[in-house]
Amino acid sequence: MRAFFTVAGLALVLAGCSGAKPEESGASEQAAAPEVSAAPVAYASLTGDAAKGEKLFMQCKACHAIEPGKNIIGPSLHGVVGRTAGQVPGFNYSPANKASGEVWSEDHLYAFIEAPQKVIPGTRMAYFGMRKPQDRADLIAYLKTVK
């Protein structure tokens, strides 16, 4: 019974991180695949707003901190823009993330935040993705200020 409540609680947390309502998150019976925009919007065509991004970061705070060296469920995102994936000291990354060799450029973060499992298959980041292109651009604008 305890395991059931742990799994159900995790499903609710993950639904909250996605910004989706629980009935939209796929937490009930089957995990929903991330929705990826039918007509992709290029990151370069957007201008991010760091103030809006800071508010959007509230979705990320359940798993990530912005303080240097403070790892929670996910690694610290302090200085993430320009950092190589899988490199925060003291964080236990998935083998897929460690081996990716990806640099968290703005374009790469934009794609990853939309659909983490598609960008780095095997990542442990259990997040359904941020659907709105402008929200992703705003979040990245905020993350660029955290260095």
UniProtKB/TrEMBL annotation:
Highest rank taxon of the organism: Bacteria
Keyword Heme: yes
Entry annotated with the keyword Iron: yes
InterPro entries listed in its UniProt record: Cyt_c-like_dom (IPR009056), Cyt_c-like_dom_sf (IPR036909), Cyt_c_1A/1B (IPR002327)
Xref: PROSITE patterns: CYTC (PS51007), PROKAR_LIPOPROTEIN (PS51257)
Leader sequence residues: 1-20
Domain Cytochrome c: 48-147
Any GO MF annotation of the entry: heme binding
Organism of this sequence: Sphingobium boeckii
Protein name: Cytochrome c
Cited SUPFAM superfamilies: Cytochrome c
Pfam families according to UniProt: Cytochrom_C
Keywords attached to this entry: Electron transport, Heme, Iron, Metal-binding, Signal, Transport
